[in-house]
Amino acid sequence: MRMRMRMLCGVGAGALLVVGAGSPVVALAAEADLAYHGYVSMAAGSVDVRLTPQNHGPNAVADATVRLRWSAAMADVQRLPEGCARAGVRAVVCRTGALAADGLGEEIRLTVRLRGVPSEVTMEVDTVWSGGAVDRNHANDRQRVLALDTGDSYVF
Asked: Is 155 within the bounds of a domain?
């Protein structure tokens, strides 16, 4: 049996290899290294978050999704910025927008109201979708920050 192989290249997205008829297709994704830096503060059950997405490269990412999770449940009603959506009782997801290789994205600003007035909350930040890019370094896109109900800013 004779097998045919052909290579198809996508612009900036890696390559696609097709092996024979009926064979599985293997996609080689672009590589990116996403990171998030910012601060969180809490006062009277209200949590303010400012975070800037960053891509250390080597490839650009057309869009990605960052998830913010809290150790305490959020209040039922939230006013979230455009590009962000509630993702359960304790989480919000936000689009990062396009991230150039070795570039910064637009700052994401949001305020979340928690149920009750806890004395502290832990916020976890992580990438849930990287626009199809492979991120082999999760040390900088997964953060955990403890914020006390003092109004002080905690940097991550």
From this structure: no
